[in-house]
Amino acid sequence: MDPQKIMSNLQNPAALTSINPLGFWDAALGTLSRELSPQQFKTWIQPLTFITFEESEQSLTIGAPNRFKLDWIKKTFADRFQELASEYFGQSTTLNFVLDIDGGSPDLTPKNKELTTENNEASVALQSKNLIEDEVLVEEQSFEIEDHSKLNPNLTFDTFVTGKANQLARAASIQVAHNPGASYNPMFLYGGVGLGKTHLIHAIGNHLLKEKPNARIRYIHAEQYVSDVVRAYQQKAFDRFKRYYHSLDLLLIDDIQFFSGKSRTQEEFFYAFEALLGNKSQVIITSDTYPKEMAGIDDRLISRFDSGLTVAIEPPELEMRVAILMKKAANEGIPMSEDVAFFVAKHLRSNVRELEGALRKILAFVRFHGREVTIEVARTALKDLLSIQNRQISVENIQKAVADFYSIKVADMYSKRRPANIARPRQIAMFMAKELTQKSLPEIGELFGGRDHTTVLHAVRKIADERSHDGQLNHEIHVIEQTLKA
Ligand SMILES: Nc1ncnc2c1ncn2[C@@H]1O[C@H](COP(=O)(O)OP(=O)(O)OP(=O)(O)O)[C@@H](O)[C@H]1O
């Protein structure tokens, strides 16, 4: 698309609505998030990147972060994207799905990136699929296990920003990378969406690969493992399947919650797990929750997951979010000052993927308009995101959620009463108000019955400190936060 034309369309919202490709992207994500389960959306759609729109050819390019996701998207979601694009643009639109390992910025400059283009006319009929053992839909094809590590070389310890939220997970990962198959086996890494679990396990694999280039390493998403089991089943190729998986030095298996309810997969994984540990090979597993909390997973697997080292990754704290934004912006060649990073990080709190998305929006805006990265620019570029966030969380909402959680009256948030069962929830609410809103300490004090800002500061420090070593308190704060965001 002609950059001049983009500029003039950007200045003319009416024109923009008809061709705005970023508008299409936001709308498509919105629709798919409603149509799919949160887990499907998180796994398949969220990691996609919008790359280019060529107006002259009426074609859109969408990037997927790895080969597996690329293939899956093309097979499973291409038709739906096609429909959404045609609806949005009011004319037939060609979709290209490409590998975009870096998760590159959305840049509407034509052909600004070198891409492994895989033209996917979405009209191409999907291949026939079979439903096997109620496990997963797979295409008919010959059973071949790809003998590659599937590691993403960009996901290393060097590119991983550390803070309180992930320092334990990082330290454990470094230990395991240096001594695979030794004491922490298996290592079970759990945490919410987009917090860096995949990044860390790739970092372990990349480290080992560098130390021992001949090591047999395999990264696999749990859903791909399920597909492998189904194909081995179809083609009676379990011997080959076992030979491959049982002979690895390091198996990295991501998002194992996808095994839920898939009994044959779990059985095969159990054998693989036993064989690998027997050989002193390292197994590393990630999940969205800790082993005992997993639903639909066999007890004998759960007890094995729990038998090594289980370590959590928490959502990044404010300073860490700032550091991540600044590092990633600098890597893109567009430095972000600390005050802009603080502004963004204060508004976007849930996970690193969300921060990366926001950064991409800001960088795209800056590139189109030739502007510097300022708070004003960030505010404009993130207008939609910020309005959602602001709608969600106010000090009053926090006071109500905390009072409900601890079964006290909301009025106790403002009262002068000081028994511990009231004072502590009040301090937690003050802490959360500081973390989750843009209010200053004096403003928060005012909203808590006219308290002094030093009282708020004391509460914020106390709860922050306790939270860092009190797992129960940490959990309670998470639960309240989830209620607020629901
Ligand atoms: N501490 C960090 N430093 C730098 N980048 C990070 C950090 N944590 C996460 N990221 C980046 O954020 C994005 C999401 O992280 P990742 O895919 O590892 O999350 P995840 O925990 O595996 O999420 P999911 O459960 O959705 O698979 C990736 O691009 C990753 O590189």
Task: Please outline the helices and strands.
Elements: H1 3-11, H2 13-19, H3 21-35, H4 38-45, E1 49-54, E2 59-64, H5 67-76, H6 78-89, E3 94-99, E4 116-119, E5 129-132, E6 136-139, H7 167-178, E7 187-191, H8 197-211, E8 217-221, H9 222-234, H10 238-246, E9 250-254, H11 263-278, E10 282-287, H12 299-305, E11 309-313, H13 318-331, H14 338-347, H15 352-369, H16 375-381, H17 383-392, H18 395-405, H19 420-436, H20 441-447, H21 453-469, H22 471-485
Parallel strand pairs: 2-3, 7-10, 7-11, 8-9, 9-10
Antiparallel strand pairs: 1-2, 3-4, 5-6
Helix pairs in contact: 1-2, 7-8, 13-14, 13-15, 18-19, 18-22, 19-21, 20-21, 21-22
Bound molecules: adenosine-5'-triphosphate.
